[in-house]
Amino acid sequence: MLRNLIFTFVLLCVSGVLTAATEPPEETPRGDPEAGRAAALVCSACHGSDGRGIGPEYPNLGGQHYNYLLSQMRAFHSGERQALLMMGQVEHLTEQQLKDISAFYAEQPLAEGTADAAPEVLELGERIYRAGIANKGVAACIACHSPGGHGNGPAGYPSLSGQPERYTALQLKAYRDGERETDAGMGGVMRGVTQNMNDREIEAVSAYIRGLH
Ligand code: HEC
Ligand code: HEC
Question: What pTM value is reported for the model?
Fold first, then answer.
């Protein structure tokens, strides 16, 4: 009986039904995008002047949701999220500057990408994105990240569309391997989603996401 209850609870968590109850509220007031533009000058070396990443491991920031950007900047600031190239980039910034920069990038255009993987890879990726992998308890990405990959700002679900597939795959593996724990405030949702995914499945869904818009 107890085992069944625990099993049901885990299933609900993995499918995202329970995590929806822990959505963070929209942060107000927003930062000032004009002040953010100036503060983000140094970031453009890697994230481009309008938030388009300059290479396959550099995420696009343009058009990303304000709340999500701010949460990740805070995580880099506190050291909760670590990445070699982001080291020393935001530690010295004030909370107001983190908000201003988030407001600036949120207003930039979303960078579109083109999926160029082999058809059978994209087919597998699309299947996972739309339906998950039922027999492995992998939830459908579409439920939270939306059909076009634009996510849901107020709910804290990031936009994924157009991200370089290498960046996306690195993040999915980091969640799976417990190296990225920034989803702690969201019930560990992405660690749950990825825990049973193998590299092939992760790379396929990442290739599909690149062409979503
Ligand atoms: C030397 C290159 C470099 C510079 C300069 C840089 N970044 Fe980054 N940034 C990266 C890389 C690489 C990642 C991906 C990190 C990872 O793999 O987790 C990243 C990730 C991010 C993310 C997370 C995006 C997401 O989708 O989760 C944000 C937000 C961010 N950077 C903001 C900034 C800001 C703001 C600045 C300037 C103050 C900046 N970065 C400067 C390389 C850089
Ligand atoms: C129940 C909702 C939910 C489902 C289902 C879900 N995600 Fe997420 N996803 C989130 C949330 C919330 C975050 C932000 C977590 C954080 O702050 O680290 C996120 C973050 C991500 C990120 C990091 C984005 C970045 O810019 O670094 C990627 C990549 C991602 N999800 C891909 C997927 C894929 C692929 C699937 C399907 C296999 C999926 N997600 C299913 C809610 C979900």
Answer: 0.91
> Please, what is the Cα angle at 209 between 204 and 212, to 5 degrees?
140
Please choose from 58, 144, 167 the residue to mutate so as to test ligand 2's pocket, defined by most ligand atoms within 8 A of CB: 144
State whether 51 and 87 are in the same domain. Answer: yes
Report which of residues 159 and 24 the model is more confident about.
159
Domains of the chain: total = 2
6 lies in some domain: no
Instruction: Indicate whether 4 belongs to any domain.
Output: no
Q: How far apart are CA 179 and CA 142, in angstroms?
A: 24
Same-domain status, 206 and 120: yes
Residues 178 and 100 in one domain: no
Question: Whose structure tokens read 């100036």?
Answer: 38
CA of 142 from ligand 1 middle (Å) equals 25
3-37 pLDDT, tens per residue? 443 334 444 444 444 444 444 566 678 999 999 99
Distance 39 CA to ligand 1 centre (A): 14
Looking at the structure, do residues 174 and 197 belong to the same domain, yes or no? yes
Q: Which domain holds residue 80?
A: 33-107
Quick count: other Cβ atoms within 10 Å of Cβ 160? 27
Atom of ligand 2 nearest to the CA of 59: 26
Q: What would the pLDDT profile of 100-130 be if each residue is shown by its tens digit? A: 999 999 999 999 999 999 999 999 999 999 9
